[in-house]
């Protein structure tokens, strides 16, 4: 047992009070230690492309009204089929966005690109394993090389708020838009992820695809006088062409694929939770280090409080990684852009040919409900203390039976299949806790 002189006890009490205050706020001071969001080195696809463009003769080919959009998608291996379209005025370029001029979003596993018709600015986000989403604009108004500008405070005003639980994150929201694209805020809104029933999804978005008797509220707008309970979802259902709504020829594809939307919602949810878990762990370790120094304890000592904080971070991440609480579908979902096929073809497979990127699209999103982001650098490079606890919990869950409300959507067969796939496709280091 460690002795605690009075002076140390005072320091410890002050530190614990600071920790409690931060937890109560649920808002991270990520500009300061230990995160240093704005100043810490970042290593992700956008920063690497910027570095390459500055040191060799590499260039980005401009094409028509989209400028360097296609070149960037190719550089980051983002499929054009991932295009989804949002027409609400909920971004900083809102004056250019409307149902006639929706904003186009494209994404890969770690990069997101936004294009707004008539704007010289592209919006780009990349996921950094230690910092979470890093925001950029790409200014292509000049005749020379496009200028990449890191955006911190400008973007984190919204993208590091209560909507993202205080850490930098992405926001996929469903609103009731009026005919010009303004959200009717008195009707409320929904943060959308894989747990959301379809009836709450895609207000303010265009949606192309077939979904049987399931209903969402994309593809339409509303009047101020309309009551929510009077909403008729039929006009927006099972839409396969948007040509009667706006000029689709101005976009890289005429689609806003329903499957791409579902994958986007899942992916941003996992990455937001991952960023929060990393932040929670880094703060817990920073506070533990200060307490250990104050109380003259070994540098690697972890108190029950520190262990509990890391444990809670790992549990929250595990729930979204295994799609806990996923809203069931019950109808077949079919996209229009070919995204489902392209998405499913990527990623590792086990000797039986099984992959975490295989889609179900009738009962649920994935055939094997474990996120493909488990292979991402965001997971493999998270703090060791978090990684150890997370994978111990993962293997324990996959070994167990569905006996509680948590993970009750994971059948014994699901758990066995996911376990077998991961044992064949993850590194030996990550399987060591098994």
Beta content comes to: 5-15%
Widest β-sheet, arrangement of strands: 6-5-4-3-2-1-9
Strand tally: 9
- Major beta-sheet overview: 7 strands, antiparallel
Termini separation (Å)?
A: 32 Å
The rounded Rg comes to 23 Å
Query: What structural class should be given to the helix and strand makeup?
Result: alpha+beta
**What sequence of helices (H) and strands (E) makes up the elements?**
HHHEEEEEEHEEEHHHHHHH
Amount of helix:
25-40%
Query: Segments where pLDDT lies below 50 for 5+ residues?
Result: 1-25
Total count of domains: 1
Average pLDDT value? 88
Question: What distinguishing features does this structure have?
Answer:
two-stranded antiparallel sheet; alpha+beta; disordered N terminus; single chain; 7-stranded antiparallel sheet; 10% strand; 434 residues
Q: What does this protein structure show overall?
A:
With 434 residues, the chain is of the alpha+beta class. Helix content is 33%, strand content 10%. The chain contains 11 helices and 9 strands. It has a 7-stranded antiparallel β-sheet with strand order 6-5-4-3-2-1-9, with helices on both faces. It has a two-stranded antiparallel ribbon with strand order 7-8. β2 and β3 (111-115) form a beta hairpin. α1 runs antiparallel to α5, α6 (304-321) crosses α9 (384-399) and α9 (384-399) packs across α10 (412-425). The radius of gyration is 23 Å and the shape is globular. It starts with 5 loop residues before the first helix and ends with a helix.
